[in-house]
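To: structure subgroup
Subject: Chain for Friday's discussion

All,

I'm putting the inputs and outputs inline so they're searchable in the archive.
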Amino acid sequence: MTCAPFPEDRPIAMRHARLTERKQFLAAAEHGRRFRSPAFTAQVRDAAGEEGRHGLRLGLTASRKVGDAVERNRIRRRLRAAAKQALAAQADRPCDLVIVARREVLTASFSALIADLSVALDRARPAKAGRRPTDKRPPSGGTRPQS
């Protein structure tokens, strides 16, 4: 049995390139601009100066704080589907987009997710100069104050 080819008039689904390495996520967090919505935070890092780069790369993250594995997977599926629709017109822009999900993605309307994602690339605020992720752990090897 052979499979019939796709009809010529049927659009082929576009898939965004993905961020796969931790250092790529960290670069977007450290050097990127931010856009906050009720359901997610978008971190956008322009990659126009990099050689061999063309097109948008998408990274999704949902920590264990937002729910169990089933809910996190549902959040990522909703965001991936919304990004597919919202970012299709900007797919050629050379940048990295990291979406840090919140639990509100589960209850937000799909049209609101699409609307927020469509403006995230343009309205992402510049990161504060010198901002680094904070380490909330106490320094190792230090002594605790005696009472």
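Points worth raising on Friday:
Helices lie at 22-31, 69-86, 110-123.
The first helix runs from residue 22 to 31.

D.
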